Amino acid sequence: MPDKINSLEQLRSWYLGAFEDFEKSLNGQSSDAFHARRKTAIQHFVTTGFPTTKNEDWKYTDLASVASTQFLPVVKPGHIPAGRIDPYLVEGQNILVFVDGYYTPALSKRLPHGNQVLVENLSASMHERDFPSEKYLAQYASVEKNSFAALSTAFLRDGALISVPDNTVVEDPLQIIFCSSERAEPYIVHPRILVVAGKNSQFRLIETHIGCGEGVYFSNAIAEIVLGENSILEHERVQDETHRASHISTTYVHQSRASGYTSHNFTLGGSLTRNDIVVELDGEGGEATLNGLYLGTGNRHVDNHTVIDHVRPHCSSHELYKGILAGRSRGVFNGKIVVRKDAQKTDAKQTNKNLILSDEASIDTKPQLEIFANDVKCTHGATVGQLDDEAMFYLRSRGIPVDESKNILVYAFASDLLDRISDEPIRDKIREVLTRKLDSARK
Amino acid sequence: MLDIRNLHASIEGTEILRGINLKLNAGEVHAIMGPNGSGKSTLAQVLAGRDSYTVTEGSVLFEGKDLLSMKPEERACEGLFLAFQYPIEIPGISNTYFLKAALNAIRKYKGLDELDAMEFLKLVKERATLMAMDESLLSRPVNQGFSGGEKKRNEIFQMAILEPTLAILDETDSGLDIDALRTVADGVNKLRREDNAILLVTHYQRLLNYIVPDAVHVLVDGKIVRSGGKELALELEDKGYEWVREQTEQVIEG
Lengths: 443, 254
Fold this sequence. Notes:
The complex is a heterodimer. Chain A is an alpha/beta fold.
């Protein structure tokens, strides 16, 4: 067993040591323009460390297991078995695959879009001076305020970069898959995404996080999404990490005037999961839709925190999160809606529904409304329930066995989140993944 | 086919059924009529296996087997079907998916091969035509957004697919306009056979103009107080339930 990290002192020395090794491994890149930011970021991280349950935002999610583990950085990508990513692949021409954080061309597909749409790995350009994404990268994920963003930025070597020019509609979905290999020692990866959507652009993005085998790893995912005026993005996110993995993710979305962002966030795997989605509606007439489904089985812990910040007037947000909690799993949902003083005519709706399938499963759900404007419409509601007895009896009275009846009703509970995905091939793919997951949860 | 003897059942300590005796043979249609709260629906639910009711006394034999010891799904697999008074809505599950799961569960129980998608679709189309069922209802989620009439028709359609030996129709006629009532009754009549039986639970006589029963039983306060032929229903319609109640009380007092 490797040693444990027991204090901020030890954490500091562990991660500073890792950073030194990382710097060496960067070769020439440690002299690039971005490196100063890495250095600032590691200092921020080792000063604050990981949040503890004393922090109100982390009250229900204890990171002791993550904070105390000596995660090794990945020096060389591992091997993933053939066909591992296939169940998650949607037919399409733009697929970026990262294994242990490293871009893997052999598994990826990239078609040129008349040199317009940029779908590539960050490392291809970020060592250049004035690289195109520099004005966005690590600008939204604040290294001062978020220790996970700090940790990610400190060790930023590669990631997915998607840049869609003004007035461009991309028909084919853009897919990014992060796959973690099986390793004997606990290790850490930092999946990173930057999306820059030009004015009037429109596209879809599927972000998938999976792993292999029995190893322990910590996936610290950061995405920054910058939506230009009148752009539209539908973003599907599927997290199906392995059962010993910790997955902590933060997605920052910055929306300009009249832009539309829709997120479908499926949390299906991992031992410990925390997702933060922070949406800033920073232009009039913006619309944000956050949909999510989280599945808890066994001893899993699933925490979803969302923040929708209405900065400007006439924006609307809709949020529907549903949880299915079985076994001894624990769910957390915290939905914060901020309406700033100038954000008049805001229309915000938030709903959280939970289905508890066992006496030992639990959920902590909390809406958090901070409203500083006076002419707004904000509604929220949360429910926690069990399978409906009458519906169970109806199914059984038709000859369907108890287990199958339960499965049908659980699927029925989840189904409207699938129905909201507008693209059929993507919807069908996620439906397959979810159905397999529910079937195996029953066994 | 069905032999109910001295059946007593209660819910949360309140006795609802207080000694029901009823015999139903293959090929027969019996109607159970009674005022609100007489225990009609309770009888239907107890026979289908709803566990919120407790059977405190008596026995029920279904084709010679002890019905009360079976789980609801076993009863269905053995050939019992309950058309619900208030069919349940199940969002997200299509009617066809639901029916396929039900039919294949029953076939599996009987040791038959499950139907594949093509065979199933063929059966569904054929029965939908027979039942004058709007095919667009098949792909919609179970009962969701259906009108009252559509829900009742969907129950009879399920019956047509599952082909039970004993069908219990719990107030399938309630709330239907005359056209919907005719369609539903017409569907039921098409499913009548020498080897199956139907128990009609109803509040109103008018259904019996369309589905003519072999026997009518009047249920009052958890007991069958009168049994007779189809003319009993007409008499009841004419004189009202109070008439039976008074007569019963006279008998008890006398």
